[in-house]
Design a protein that fits this description.
Layout (H helix, E strand, L loop, with lengths): L3 H24 L13 E2 H6 L1 H4 L5 H10 L5 E5 L7 E5 L14 E4 L11 E4 L4 H7 L1 E2 L7 E3 L20 E5 L1 H6 L4 E4 L4 E3 L7 E2 L3 E6 L6 E4 L2 E2 L8
Antiparallel strand pairs: 1-3, 2-3, 4-9, 5-8, 6-11, 7-10, 8-12, 9-10, 12-13, 13-14
Length: about 230
């Protein structure tokens, strides 16, 4: 059981992490902070950004948040030009475009023999009709569709790439999509990512299976074919 001091630290770290995520994934350009080609920003600039400055964040706070974040969302390193200066980045989840994401992401390929055994996307009942109507999964404002290699209920409660409260699981046939020209990548913290096809869609024909994560709604899709409607009231 956490002490009151530990609970306050956890609460503060959550606030810091959310502010870092908002800045490094989505608002760096608007905030006037330049990300390099690998997505890194000078930590001094990050600490000076209003919402983070208002929390009184220190370098020690940043080091703790980066080290203890359960999904390893951030990377921290020393600048090569100024060893006393830190650089920080978000490992994935960007809506802002990066000049070069190759250092953030490892390509997944059949030739590289690094296709994960299982790739899952978590979503919600409310979004499912729109997903079916659009013909598949879309990045929805981000650069990529985010997927995981497991279910938090099966893997100790922490799985990068899927929210803990996801209601539906979409298992994806990554090998078939690769053969059709869809690109896939693996982030530094283990999130499986795709931008979809040339139209920005990961087609439903690659849905290996779709089922309810905690509520039994039956098997909705199997091997790229729709099997059932989402039950009323879900």
């Amino acid at each position: 059981m956490q002490s009151s001091g530990e609970m306050e630290t956890t609460k503060r770290d959550t606030q810091i992490s959310r502010a870092l995520s908002r800045l490094l994934r989505h608002q760096a350009e608007k905030a006037g902070i330049n990300l390099d080609s690998e997505g890194f920003a000078p930590l001094n600039d990050v600490l000076a950004w209003g919402p983070i400055r208002s929390l009184g964040v220190t370098v020690d706070d940043i080091q703790r948040v980066v080290t203890t974040n359960d999904k390893q969302r951030y990377g921290l390193k020393h600048s090569t030009t100024s060893p006393s200066t830190y650089l920080i980045r978000a490992n994935q989840g960007h809506s802002i475009k990066l000049d070069d994401s190759s250092s953030l992401l490892t390509p997944i390929s059949l030739q590289g023999n690094n296709v994960p055994k299982r790739v899952l996307h978590g979503t919600y009942f409310a979004f499912w009709p729109a997903i079916e109507a659009s013909g598949g999964l879309r990045p929805m404002g981000r650069n990529h569709v985010h997927c995981s290699t497991g279910d938090p209920d099966e893997d100790g409660g922490v799985v990068s790439g899927m929210r803990r409260d996801a209601e539906l699981i979409v298992e994806i046939d990554v090998e078939a999509s690769l053969r059709s020209g869809v690109g896939w990548w693996l982030s530094e913290n283990g999130v499986v990512l795709t931008a979809g096809d040339e139209s920005g869609v990961l087609g439903s024909r690659f849905f290996k299976a779709v089922w309810g994560r905690r509520l039994d709604v039956g098997l909705l899709w199997e091997d790229g074919l729709k099997k059932a409607e989402l039950p009323d009231g879900s």
